[in-house]
Write a structure and sequence with these properties.
Elements: H1 3-8, H2 11-24, H3 26-29, H4 39-47, H5 51-55, H6 59-70
Length: 81
């Protein structure tokens, strides 16, 4: 399994990807749920973003997207839906 499939195959990974998309694109931020329920939904958010915008993000912005994706993790409980 490749890295992309691993990241998009988990709820936290999908949320991280969607957070990156939301951080880069104003329309994506206002398009609904920040909790992508499927790989397809996370990819839709990213598809609306110019890849150059992601490349221009600072390390701190990327870490903020990651932190927001895992802030509510409770690893002693079942995964979020």
């Amino acid at each position: 399994m490749d890295s992309v499939a691993l990241v998009l195959g988990s709820p936290r990974g999908r949320r991280f990807c969607a957070n990156v998309g939301h951080a880069c694109h104003a329309d994506a931020r206002s398009s609904g749920s920040h909790w992508p329920q499927s790989t397809e939904h996370a990819l839709e958010v990213l598809d609306a973003v110019d890849v150059r915008a992601i490349a221009e993000m600072s390390e701190l912005e990327i870490l903020h997207c990651l932190a927001y994706a895992v802030d509510f993790a409770r690893y002693w409980e079942p995964p979020d839906e």
